[in-house]
């Protein structure tokens, strides 16, 4: 069972930046797509971004041009750089692993890290 541990959340003013990290256990990290989801209070969890084993990326329209996903396979870590943050980005952010491919539902989740953007 993979273990995903997020870090880097916090409180930031609108227009600011945060960088989230997700450290994964397991020797096969580099072959699976990884992603980030978020869940705001009273809303369903939603897709934010994903990165494939070869560096291809996908983004939700709401974060395109502001968020960047990257991975460091040597460190078993995936990152989410968030710039130009808006109050509507406030949510718990979850790291996800796609063991069955990124056209399917994630097969592993982290515990989440809170991001709060003040106006």
Structure classification: mainly beta
* Strands, count: 11
- Pattern of helices and strands: EEEEEEEEEEE
Large-scale geometry: globular
Mean pLDDT across all amino acids: 95
Unreliable stretches: none
Q: N- to C-terminal separation?
A: 39 Å
Helix content bin: under 10%
Gyration radius, to the nearest Å?
13 Å
**Major sheet description:** 7 strands, mixed
Distinct helical segment count: 0
Strand content: over 45%
Helix and strand layout, with pairings?
Blueprint (H helix, E strand, L loop, with lengths): L3 E4 L2 E4 L4 E7 L9 E6 L6 E6 L5 E3 L7 E6 L4 E6 L8 E7 L10 E2 L3 E6 L1
Parallel strand pairs: 2-11
Antiparallel strand pairs: 1-3, 3-8, 4-5, 4-9, 5-6, 7-8, 9-10, 9-11
Give an overview of the whole structure:
The chain has strands at residues 4-7, 10-13, 18-24, 34-39, 46-51, 57-59, 67-72, 77-82, 91-97, 108-109, 113-118. By secondary structure, it is mostly beta strands. The strands form two sheets. Strands 2, 4, 5, 6, 9, 10 and 11 form a seven-stranded mixed beta sheet that branches. The protein has a four-stranded antiparallel beta sheet with strand order 1-3-8-7, with no helix packed on it. Strand 5 and strand 6 (57-59) form a beta hairpin. It is globular. The N and C termini lie far apart (39 Å). The mean pLDDT is 95.
Can I get a quick summary?
With 119 residues, the chain is mainly β.
Descriptive key words:
119 residues, mainly beta, 7-stranded mixed β-sheet, 4-stranded antiparallel β-sheet, 0% helix
């Amino acid at each position: 069972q993979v273990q995903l541990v997020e870090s880097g959340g916090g409180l930031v003013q609108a227009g600011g930046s945060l960088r989230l990290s997700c450290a994964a256990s397991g020797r096969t990290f580099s072959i699976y797509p990884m992603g980030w989801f978020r869940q705001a209070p009273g809303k369903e969890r939603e897709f934010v971004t994903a990165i494939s084993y070869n560096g291809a990326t996908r983004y939700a329209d709401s974060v395109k041009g502001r968020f960047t996903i990257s991975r460091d396979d040597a460190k078993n870590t995936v990152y989410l750089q968030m710039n130009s943050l808006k109050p509507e980005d406030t949510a718990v952010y979850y790291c996800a692993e796609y063991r069955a491919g990124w056209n399917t539902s994630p097969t592993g989740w982290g515990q989440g890290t809170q991001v709060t953007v003040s106006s």
